[in-house]
Amino acid sequence: MEGAYAANISNDAKFSVVSSIHHGISLWDLEKNALKYNWSQQQDSADNLVLVADIADNNSHAITANRHDFSLWNIKNGQSEGYWSITESSIRDVAVANNGDYLLVGQNNGKVVHITIANGHRLEFLGHQEKINAIDMLPNGRVAISGSNDFVAYVWDTVSGQVIYRFNHPSRVTMVALDPKARYAFSADSKKSANIWDLKTGELVSQLKYFNRQEIFSAVQFSPDGTKLLTGAPSRKVSVWDIATGERLTSWRVLPRDDIRPAGAVVYSVAFRDNNQVITESSSGYAELWQVNKQ
Questions:
Q1: CATH class for the domain made up of 4-214
Q2: Domains 4-214 and 215-295 share a fold
């Protein structure tokens, strides 16, 4: 594979959806290392490239999006279950709930739209003042998190649109995530602050401790047992952190693309296969399996 534009690994590391130069959108069975489906969402120009994707926590559905359109796919039978276009703005990030029941779309105009598939109901969350950079949603679709250039990450109720928690940052919020088991939230900015929050109380659990002037994160995942956080970065770097303390336990770098100088790769997605093995997917087009030593 000559590289990928986007990739998302399922939370249990069994599947990944990849948007690539030659194959369009592919769904891979990572346990068999086999191509399961090739999906066609028109990608005939730079504007049409699928740049974000998400897989439901129970592996029922995937959502893929380019700047203006998004598609819902059934992983069980490979069929498309809907195609939508957004005209008022461009798409920055997407998420899908279990069984494809709810979709979440973060936009350039600061809106986050929560869509109920059964009846087409759309709830617009208007809390942000500037463009959305990252979103996530619990598997049941009831709680969302969104991070924006306005220095704020909000956790909010997708039925009422009410803010549950507001997490302020010193700079643009570039990455957010929710633990699928609803224990934690994560929010990180473009400067120096990456925080793990208690989703039940909104209290700070820990701040990631790093010595660089800054670390930018392009992928985040909580471990099944709730003790570790896995992150990927645009610098090929993958790190495992202790949730309780914020200490980095270990780190490594994914394979670069050979045809790029300097050789580089963005880590698009990371997932725990179990508490000791992780899978990464990067712009180099490789899915890589890593052993995390027990601490």
A1: mainly beta
A2: no
Q: 215-295 adopts what CATH topology?
A: Thrombin, subunit H (2.40.10)
Our CA angle for 112, 206, 168, nearest 5°, is 40
Collapsing DSSP to helix, strand or coil, 187 comes out as strand
pLDDT for the residue 2: 60
Check if the beta carbon of residue 209 is closer than 8 Å to that of residue 167.
no
Q: What single-letter DSSP state applies at residue 30?
A: T
For residue 35, count other CB atoms closer than 10 A to its CB.
12
pTM for the full model?
0.94
Three-state DSSP class for residue 190: coil
According to the model, what pLDDT value does residue 74 have?
A: 97
Q: Are 176 and 197 in contact (CB under 8 A)?
A: no
Please list the ranges in the chain whose pLDDT falls under 50.
1, 43-45, 295
Residue spans per domain, the chain:
4-214, 215-295
CA distance 98 to 185: 19
Q: What angle do CA 216, 10, 263 make, to 5 degrees?
A: 40
Query: What are the angstrom distances between the C-alpha of 143 and each of 103, 159, 238?
Result: 12, 8, 27
Q: How far is CA 32 from the centre of its chain?
A: 23
Nearest to 147 by CA among 178, 184, 102, 121: 178
